[in-house]
Design goal:
Helix content: 10-25%
Strand order of the largest sheet: 1-2-3-4-5-6-8-10-12-14-16
CATH superfamily of the largest domain: Ribonuclease Inhibitor
Mean pLDDT: 75
Number of domains: 4
Pfam families: LRR_1, LRR_8, LRRNT_2
Main location: membrane
Oligomer: single chain
Distance between the termini: 154 Å
Radius of gyration: 55 Å
InterPro entries: cNMP-bd_dom, Kinase-like_dom_sf, Leu-rich_rpt, Leu-rich_rpt_typical-subtyp, LRR_dom_sf, LRR_N_plant-typ, PRK1-6/SRF4-like
Structural class: alpha/beta
Protein name: Cyclic nucleotide-binding domain-containing protein
Keywords: Leucine-rich repeat, Membrane, Repeat, Signal, Transmembrane, Transmembrane helix
Number of helices: 10
């Protein structure tokens, strides 16, 4: 009796098991069967995995059905046929007819094309296109897949930027864009993914900083931004109660600054291969990787040159591993030496220039006196102007000046001669000794006692204003020029009379008859010395314009008085 009862129980259990785990429900939609056959053809799958005559729900590898409808496709690990490998394709048009499809996984299956548009699959919750050799960029049509919880594009050849519209996928829990060539910055919109648990952006070309809002995602447990070009200081999570991530991987970036509470707020932190500086506290958790930074009192750090170069390039302050920066001090001292050398060098140059100018001016004033402004014997070769300005005699042949030329007189107007002496010298100012009628007086040739040849200028103050005469006379007595000869003396006729009724005569030595007599009839107001030390008639301005300053040095041109 007991055996029979046991046998009945076994039969009932077998029937129950058969009813529960018997033959699966066959695919009930002809449209979905046609869509699967089209997908099989475009992917080039082998008949061994997807036999054409068999039921997809019961016999095709990776096809999941519910109530006779396709709800999931997983071709990860499947292989193409020989013909499919020659022309790999991925036609997603057929997937549009799988209206209940909630999961598609092609991880590791080569799809060397741009990312297909899957916006028709509104029920899709899991999309894994990792390791598919996809190219192009992530387009914004994924924002229509509002039911996505997992989006994986890792290990492809994607470029471009992270589209901010991904931040609208409010149900997203896993976002993996690692190992691509995505550039630019991390969009702030990713911080709006409040259900995000796993965020992997590692091994890209991202730049900028990590948005602060990412540290505030309440469900975040894993954050990997390693192997990028991200920079900035580490976040301080002490004031952020929502940050509960357990694993932070910030390695191989360009983060700098000091350590923060990030180390104490997580289960594991990888900060290796950055430029974090400062002293490591004694209570630092052991679950932190700090290698290849710029930290003090820990091993396996970057070199001083590497850290110094980085902080200098970013114009940041570096603590020099807690050691006084002798290199920077040396550079600053060297820069200070250069600055001081420039300042004192410039000041010294100015001082030297001033001293040179003072010496030149002093020599010039001394030359005015030494060149014989006054009376006395003047050797042959002296030259005269009708304005009575001179620089002294010029020796014949360009030789040295004779000693007689250094005649020093107490008065700038030279020696005072009597009117009778001048009358005798010019034969009573006879017409035979008249050289020229000047605009301010007449020029006469004369011979003083001792045979000194002179040119005498006679001024009639009744026709020449006193003020003009005094200005001219003062100028003549003080100025010097390489083409002029000195004033030798003066004479006042009838000194007991009033000044306006007087006649003054002043003259200059010209010890021999000179070549300018051949040009005495040329209209001119001055007798000048040219570059060959020959006397020329004409105004000083005309001669300067004609002969220029080619034979004068720079200092002479700077110091000469205007004509």
């Amino acid at each position: 009796m007991v055996d029979r009862r046991s046998t009945v129980e076994l039969v009932l259990l077998f029937l129950l098991f058969q009813s529960a785990f018997g033959q699966p429900v066959r695919l009930s939609s002809a449209t979905e069967r046609a869509a699967l056959l089209t997908l099989r053809s475009s992917l080039g799958l082998r008949g061994k995995d997807w036999p054409k005559k068999a039921d997809p729900c019961s016999s095709w590898t990776g096809v999941q059905c519910r109530h006779g409808r396709v709800v999931g496709i997983n071709i990860s690990g499947l292989r193409r046929s020989r013909f499919g490998r020659l022309n790999p394709q991925f036609s997603v048009d057929a997937l549009a007819n799988l209206t209940l499809l909630g999961s598609f996984n092609s991880s590791g299956f080569s799809l060397p094309d741009p990312i297909p548009t899957l916006s028709q699959l509104s029920r899709l919750s899991v999309l894994d296109l990792s390791r598919n050799s996809l190219t192009g960029s992530i387009h914004s049509s994924f924002s229509f897949l509002s039911n996505l919880t997992v989006l994986d594009f890792s290990s492809n050849f994607l470029s471009g930027t992270i589209p901010p519209v991904l931040g609208t996928l409010s149900k997203l829990q896993v976002l993996n864009l690692s190992t691509n060539s995505i550039s630019d910055s991390i969009p702030l919109e990713l911080g709006e993914l409040s259900r995000l648990v796993d965020l992997d952006l590692s091994s890209n070309s991202l730049s900028g900083g990590v948005p602060d809002i990412l540290w505030s995602i309440p469900e975040l447990r894993f954050l990997d931004v390693s192997k990028n070009n991200l920079t900035g200081v580490l976040p301080n999570l002490s004031s952020n109660a929502n940050a509960t991530a357990e694993v932070f991987d910030l390695s191989q970036n360009l983060f700098f600054g000091g350590l923060t509470s990030l180390l104490w707020k997580s289960s594991f932190v990888d900060l290796s291969n950055n430029y974090v500086q400062g002293k490591v506290p004694d209570d630092t958790p052991i679950n932190a990787s700090l290698a290849s930074n710029c930290l003090q009192n820990v091993t396996n750090q970057r070199s001083l040159e590497d850290c110094s170069f980085f902080y200098a390039e970013w114009e940041l302050s570096f603590d020099n591993f807690g050691v006084p920066n002798t290199i920077q001090t040396r550079k600053n001292n060297r820069r200070l030496v250069f600055i001081l050398a420039g300042v004192f060098g410039g000041f010294g140059f100015i001082v030297i220039l001033v001293l040179v100018l003072v010496v030149l001016l002093s020599n010039r004033e001394r030359g005015v006196t030494d060149r014989g402004i006054g009376a006395g014997p003047v050797p042959a070769g002296g030259v005269v102007t009708d304005r009575g300005i001179g620089v002294g005699p010029v020796p014949e042949g360009g030789g040295a000046l004779p000693p007689e030329v250094s005649i020093k007189l107490p008065s700038l107007l030279g020696k005072s001669f009597s009117y009778e002496q001048l009358l005798r010298a010019t034969s009573d100012f006879s017409d035979s000794n008249l050289i020229k009628h000047g605009h301010s007086g007449d020029l006469f040739r004369g011979i003083l006692e001792g045979g000194i040849h002179v040119v005498i200028k006679r001024i009639d103050l009744r026709s020449f204003k006193k003020e003009a005469y005094m200005v001219e006379l003062e100028l003549f007595s003080r100025a010097s020029h390489t083409r002029l000869v000195p004033l030798m003396g003066h004479c006042l006729e009838h000194e007991n009379e009033k000044f306006m009724e007087l006649q003054r005569v002043y003259f200059i030595s010209i010890n021999a008859l000179l070549p300018w007599f051949t040009e005495m009839f040329k209209p001119a107001s001055s007798i000048l010395l040219n570059d060959k030390f020959e006397v020329r008639l004409g105004s000083l301005s005309e001669v300067c314009a004609q002969e220029g300053n080619a034979h004068q040095n720079v200092i002479t041109r700077l110091l000469q008085l205007p004509t």
